Amino acid sequence: MLESWMILIASIICEVSGTSCLKLSDGFSKIIPTVSVFVFYGLSMWGLSVVLKKMDVGVAYAVWSGLGTAIVVLIGIFFFGERITPVRFCSLLFIVIGVIGLNYSPGAQ
């Protein structure tokens, strides 16, 4: 199970990297970030598909999408100059709480 979690974390990192490269690609007008988008998203999907062999789809996808979203929001704030507002902060907190709740709920693998 630890191996599945490590692959899931790697998939999240790839998904976040792909999303960051999507921003940097400037509408697919810059070649290196554009190619990186497809490489990172492909690796992310592959990793998630491997994880789903051993982990509940609800938990795996919630962790993958929730943590990915939270990390992308933080990257937007710290690297792309996006604003943090009280509503955005609370929403981010709810995402994290939801992921934790799904992970530790009865029946979760």
**Topology as a string of helices (H) and strands (E):** HHHH
Q: With helices defined by DSSP (H or I, 4 residues minimum), what is the helix count?
A: 4
Helical percent range?
over 70%
How is the biggest beta sheet arranged? none
Structural class comes to mainly alpha
Tally the structural domains.
Answer: 1
Task: Set down the secondary structure blueprint.
Layout: H1 2-24, H2 31-51, H3 57-79, H4 86-104
Pfam families: Multi_Drug_Res
Subcellular location: Cell membrane
Transmembrane segments: 31-52, 59-80, 86-104
Structure overview:
It is a single chain. The chain has one domain (2-104). The longest helix is centred in the N-terminal third of the chain and has 23 residues, at 2-24. The chain starts with a helix and ends in a 5-residue tail after the last helix. It contains 4 helices and no strands. With 109 residues, it is mainly alpha-helical. The protein has helices at 2-24, 31-51, 57-79, 86-104. The chain crosses the membrane at residues 31-52, 59-80, 86-104. GO terms for molecular function: transmembrane transporter activity.
Key features?
109 residues, 0% strand, single chain, mainly alpha
Would you kindly provide a brief summary of this structure?
With 109 residues, this protein is an all-alpha fold. It is built from 4 helices and no strands.
